[in-house]
Amino acid sequence: MMLxxxxxxxxxxxxKDTRVINSHSVETLQKHQLDFRISHRFGDIxxxxxxxxxxYGLETAADVLIGVDYGVTDNFTVGLNRTKGVGTLSRLINxxxxxxxxxxxxxxxxxxxxxxxxxxxxTLPKSSSxxxxxxxxxxxxxxxxxxxxxxxxxxxxxxxxxxxxxxxxRNIVDALDENRLFNVGLQAKYQFNKGFALxxxxxxxxxxxxxxxxxxxxxxxxxxEFDTGGHVFQLNFTNARGLATTDYIPNTxxxxxxxxxxxxxxxxxxxxx
Length: 273
Fold this sequence. Notes:
By secondary structure, the protein is an all-beta fold. The chain has one domain: Beta Barrel (Porin), CATH 2.40.160.40. It is built from 1 helix and 16 strands. It has one helix at residues 245-251; strands spanning 2-5, 8-11, 19-20, 23-24, 33-44, 61-73, 76-83, 92-102, 112-122, 143-155, 159-170, 180-193, 196-206, 220-227, 231-238, 262-272. Strands 5-6-7-8-9-10-11-12-13-14-15-16 form a 12-stranded antiparallel beta barrel. A two-stranded antiparallel ribbon has the order 1-2. The two termini are 22 Å apart.
């Protein structure tokens, strides 16, 4: 969709949704628009925990998200959701602030730029063992933070690509883990027609202490997106089990090569308030 005004041709809809499988997209909601969404990640399709015994993952739930986003202005969106969580710090309440700084303008500015910050707090009960990560010696140990800069461009009429460098910070981690994890994501979309697109999402995580030998893997997803006009429906496959940025980036321990990927979906419904 393109809007004309003041001799500028603004290019909208780099993505149809505010998310690309796991990651945020550069898109923000319009002013007074409410986005109600439900996301679900099933269990492993194959591997040691997949296959026929759990109907290829469909009988188990790796993570579930339910929440809302709200457009305060056309360029500023706030969000609140709840996730089951997959890491040691699970049962998360997640909040987000999202501000679009720059919008792509044909023949003037080739990029859209959005800043997104997230904060999660675990609601797990306090452990009685001082040696447990869940002892929560300080209340601040319950918090996890993420900040990302999203830069996207629409190429032609059908292809969008986005880079999303970011940082996840956890106030408390296991002895051999790192509090800060720098990461860079790559998201892409190919729009076949008005209502159907192929989407991709992958994130590289930079760490001095962890690698695939320790059981951590980059979260990678591929999926299909359907825009029905009011609903955006995503079907995807990803090795990430978690849904919150503060959860899936530090806690993806499943490998595509071992069949440890899963089916997932997201339903987004927009309301104008």
